[in-house]
């Protein structure tokens, strides 16, 4: 095309932010259950709704009975840091970093906990050499790098006979990618990603080996109250039965329940994965048809199907800011500028709460915006 007129058709739901992400189709606040609001989270109904949320997570995410699920404060960050502060120090530590959140866990380990981890890094768009990982150490990694669009392809690289713990920040992977539960000792996520839920709360999933670590290891550093998962040498089981450490937002809980019931109604995990895959495929078609657009994650085997990061020919920070602003002002796409620490580019959420037709409608708008900012 030599001329790019403003497209006539807009995405019906132009919500492409990578967190908080698009609400499930059909969501509206009047559809949320409200019986638990204004009540104590420790009341019968409060605890019942929290337990129901946990039960839905287990069912939809297909978490085995061997793993405990808890709702914790501080979103995904709080859940990861809870695991680090309570479990690290018993063995050497290895951290993998190929984007900003992985680097954040490196900073926590080095500057806050004062341990000296082995750090295995890769540039944005690349995956580190997973074969370098020593599984005699505790290993912290992001299953899906939200700010780089690079994911681990599977759990095959995690040793079945590992001595250390596998601690996975999977906030933008769960409900969209397969998780090898026999290979994961700790997994964390936030409702605000693939479920399109509200922020503030995280989910902490512990396998048997993580529970054993908690009950046999006493950290060398002080633990804030919100991190304490052990009482008198035993796991605080109530945390994994809806008895949260601090007061949760029951409105956020009800919002998560809505999303989980929606996911269950679709057909559960397989349907959620299929929707994300279809969205990512539709976006890939857009990329392949344009020589000015590319994938930051060059290898399809490790390319995310949720937080898809794109390169734009000739882009710098100012250009991307102008590009995203044009689309937002015209209600064609919200919040698609790449993460601030990533190379200048676009980031388009393709998780299950996004409709494939809206991804398809985005293509001509990308052409229009690119033509405008490239003049």
Relevant terms:
14 strands, globular, alpha/beta, 375 residues, seven-stranded mixed β-sheet, three-stranded antiparallel β-sheet
Describe this structure in words.
The longest helix has 20 residues, at 269-288. The chain has a seven-stranded mixed sheet with strand order 1-9-8-7-4-2-3, sandwiched between helices. Strands 12-13-14 form a three-stranded antiparallel sheet. Strands 5-6 form a two-stranded antiparallel ribbon. With 375 residues, it is α/β, with parallel strands linked by helices. The two termini are 15 Å apart. The protein has eight helices and 14 strands. Helix 3 (100-112) links the parallel strand 2 and strand 3. Helix 1 runs parallel beside helix 5 (250-266), helix 6 (269-288) runs parallel beside helix 8 and helix 7 packs across helix 8 (356-373). The mean pLDDT is 96. 49% of the residues are buried. It is 32% helix and 15% strand.
Element layout with pairings:
Elements: H1 44-61, E1 68-73, H2 75-87, E2 93-97, H3 100-112, E3 118-121, E4 138-142, E5 144-145, E6 150-151, E7 166-169, E8 186-190, E9 201-206, H4 208-216, E10 230-231, E11 234-235, H5 250-266, H6 269-288, E12 293-295, E13 307-312, H7 317-329, E14 345-349, H8 356-373
- Report the structural category: alpha/beta
Task: Give the biggest beta sheet.
Answer: 7 strands, mixed
Strand content: 15-25%
- What gap, in angstroms, lies between the N and C termini? 15 Å
Could you list the spans in which at least 5 consecutive residues all have pLDDT below 50?
none
Q: DSSP helix count? A: 8
Give the spatial strand order of the biggest sheet.
1-9-8-7-4-2-3
